[in-house]
Amino acid sequence: MEKTQTGRRARCAVLAGPGSLAIGEREFPAASPDGVLLAVEVCGVCRTDRKAFHMGQRDLVFPRVLGHEIVGHLLDVGSAVVGFEVGERVQVFPGVACGSCEYCQHGIDNLCDKMQIIGFHLDGGFSELLSLSGDILQSGILNKVPEGLDSRTASLAEPLACSLNMLKRLSLQQAETVVVFGAGPLGVLTSQLARVRGAERIVIVEPMAARRALSTRLADLSLDFDNNTASAIMDFSHGRGADVVLPCCPGNDAFQMGLEVAAKRGQIGFFSGLTDASDIGNSALNHVHYRELSLVGAYGCSSTDDREALELLATGQVGMADLPTRDISWPELPEVLFTLDPFEHVFTFFYPTPKELEL
């Protein structure tokens, strides 16, 4: 990587607008006295990144370097930065909250009205380097990676934290039947976390045959998504239905079926925004009324959730579960972002720096 008098030149992928991605170089200055310069080791690629590439996203501001599941090592640390040293591995919590509003003061900084998100409002991890200024660092976004935890597993902290935020808002008690729609990264992590938090019986619904076959190691029952799914869930729960339903996919059909198979006074955790253009019909929503369902929303995760998720990964309670992964670098990044179709592998990790940077 070429050094200049003021910093380093490094590759990054800049999204100028939907579908318009340019891989080039830019100069990254040396760390300011209260900032750091991070060498990105790995950045997870999630469906939200792919959606942002195609159609933008509510919080996305162009032009932007995407990527928010970031782990790297500190290449340069400002003289005024306390608690971190050059060479340390860190996981980056992507939410930059104000720290002073009512939500931040109550520990729910994911709802901060002034929230800035790395990879959406601010440049993210599809880059060899990431510069973080003092005003960003003061929100506490850097977490040291625990010794013994590999970097790509550590990059799952943010999506796992989103699952954790959701499940904290629900009541999971032993012997409950939990139905998870989708066996992608979010569904896989959520299923494991639900088990850790006390769910006894887990059903995973997944239309893709390869992922459905893989999900059998995490679920008590794995089902296709078809005309027989609802009846199979009811049979499995002895006609009662699911105590907790977790749609981990953006389709209306899964959300509507979740309403149909929920038990009386069951809970639906809504933390994967719907992307279908069609509306949810009144007949579906009437299930909430007639069966006294609780529809509980969750958005993203707090900084506390993120730190807790990192610890769960470090202790091995949740992880990749030996599920297939794909490691990519610069040549494959546009190809991976281009498709919205689910992959047969579960996790995708982007490595912008295939060889270790010279400190």
How would you sum up this structure, described in words?
The protein is α/β, with parallel strands linked by helices. 27% of the residues lie in helices and 27% in strands. It has 12 helices and 18 strands. Strands 3, 5, 6, 9, 10, 17 and 18 form a 7-stranded mixed beta sheet that branches. Strands 13-12-11-14-15-16 form a 6-stranded parallel beta sheet, sandwiched between helices. Helix 5 (157-168) packs across helix 6 (185-196). The radius of gyration is 21 Å and the shape is globular.
How many strands in all?
18
The number of helical runs is 12
Shape: globular
Largest sheet: 7 strands, mixed
Task: Please write the string of helix (H) and strand (E) elements.
Answer: EEEHEEEEHEEHEHHEHEHEHEHEHEHEHE
Mean pLDDT across residues: 94
Distance between the termini: 11 Å
Radius of gyration, in Å, reads 21 Å
- The proportion of strand residues reads 25-35%
The helix content, as a percent range, equals 25-40%
Model regions low in confidence, pLDDT < 50 over at least 5 residues:
355-359
